[in-house]
Amino acid sequence: MFLGYVSIKQLPMETVMKLLLVDDNPSNLFMLGKLAQSSGIADVQSFRDPLQALEEARQTRFDLIIVDYMMPGMDGLTLIREVRNLPDYIDVPIVMVTTVDQREICYAALEAGATDFLTKPVDMAEAKARLRNLAMLREMQNKLRDRADWLQTEVHKATHDRLSVEEEVILRLARAVERRDPSIASHLVRVARTARELAEELGQAESYCQDLYIASLMHDIGKLGLSDDLLYKTGPYTADERRQMQAHTLIGGEILEGSRSRVIRLAAEIAETHHEFWNGAGYPRGLKEAAIPLSGRIVSVADVFDALTSERPYKAAWTAEDAARYIADNAGLQFDPDVARAFSLRYFRILKIREQAGTPFGFAA
Ligand SMILES: [Fe+2]
Ligand SMILES: [Fe+2]
Questions:
Q1: C-alpha–C-alpha distance, residues 169 and 176, integer Å
Q2: How many Å lie between the centroid of ligand 1 and the Cα of residue 178?
Q3: Whole-angstrom Cα distance, residue 140 to residue 32?
Q4: CA angle (63 as vertex; 57, 69 as ends), nearest 5
Q5: Distance 40 CA to ligand 1 centre (A)
Q6: In this structure, which ligand is nearest to the CA of 247?
């Protein structure tokens, strides 16, 4: 192995290298231990029994290993193979000690995963240089690994920060909708929390449940595009007004479409489909069953339950029992039967959502 034309004396090792030494001959062990120490390797653990050495390698992360070939219990080749199979040992330098005439064994050792050889009788100067080089190789590997770990942490942190800003912007947009239509104040947060409960009950991944929670906050964002007359009307709608009101789904989809953000794409899907019916009788497109995205099917149940149990200018609030009965009665008609079942299973947890304050992420209302 070539490490460039730099004197090895110019590259002092900064970390303590751990060396595992395995040889059944005590005087060889002593000699190799001395050699390692004079090569700058301070932490040397010596074993005469290869099985014990293997056990120790399982517990401790060594940086360098020197193995004899002929040993009772387990030969050096087998030991190298076993060590290479351990986690964290894929690139640890392993040196095999052989005699000059053991060429075939050298080939087999390379095959088993040996990195280098020392031949007996050991030339002390050569062996010292080899060990220094291998120790430096290991140190560089360790530094690269530490740097890769550090980079991974930084990338993770940056992604997390970006997601938080994304969440905050979404929340503030949801708040803009609430200001426009005060009758739905707290409705958005309760729908979002209920949707997350339902997604969890349906066995969805944690990341999806969290995305759904954030995205649901914008399910009625299209109401920003409705006229005041329509939005604040308390009496029954004419057919034309009803059509305009129903357009809040498509307006919401337009506001949110084409985003690079996964959460905002999910929000667009929900805005467009949260008034679709399982049997195809909903709006805006009359989609049916699985053609309605799961997010829309979930938010539909959460939205209707919250709307029914809330007082509106044109209706009194239903009791939670009546609203739950409505959802059960309309499973397979208005609602996805699986989502309706998830609702009944999470009913008592969903009831608690109504008792909690409606401010997500700790923002003041
Ligand atoms: Fe809506
Ligand atoms: Fe809603």
A1: 11
A2: 13
A3: 23
A4: 65
A5: 72
A6: 1
Which residues are within 8 A (CB) of 119 and not within 5 positions of it... i.e. 6 or more apart? 97, 98, 99, 100
Chosen CATH of 2-149 out of 3.40.50.300, 3.40.50.2300, 2.102.10.10, 3.30.1120.10: 3.40.50.2300
Answer yes or no: is pLDDT of 359 > 70. no
Tell which residue, 291, 17, 267, has the closest CA to residue 142. 17
Question: What's the CA-to-centroid distance between 231 and ligand 2, angstroms?
Answer: 13
Domain 2-149 and domain 181-355, same fold? Reply is no
Contact predicate 300/220, CB 8 Å: no
**Three-state DSSP class for 332?**
coil
Is residue 206's pLDDT more than 60?
Answer: yes
Question: How far away, in angstroms, is 302 Cα from ligand 2 center?
Answer: 9
- Tell me the percentage of the chain whose pLDDT exceeds 70: 91
Bridge partner residues of 98 (DSSP):
119
Consecutive H or E run containing 96? strand 94-99
Q: What is the CATH number of domain 181-355?
A: 1.10.3210.10
Ligand 2 center–CA 305 separation, angstroms = 10
What's the rounded Cα separation, in Å, for the pair 323 and 302?
A: 11
Q: Give the contacts of 50 (CB within 8 A, at least 6 positions apart).
A: 22, 24, 67, 71, 73, 74, 75, 76, 78, 79
Contacts of 68 (CB under 8 A, 6+ apart): 22, 23, 24, 25, 28, 76, 96, 97
- Positive or negative, the CA dihedral 260, 264, 266, 271 is negative
Query: Average pLDDT for residues 261-268, to the nearest whole number?
Result: 92
Strands (E), 169-320: none
The residue ranges of every structural domain in the chain are: 2-149, 181-355
CA of 164 to the centre of ligand 2 (A): 24
pTM given for the model: 0.59
Pick the ligand that lies closest to the CA of residue 245.
1
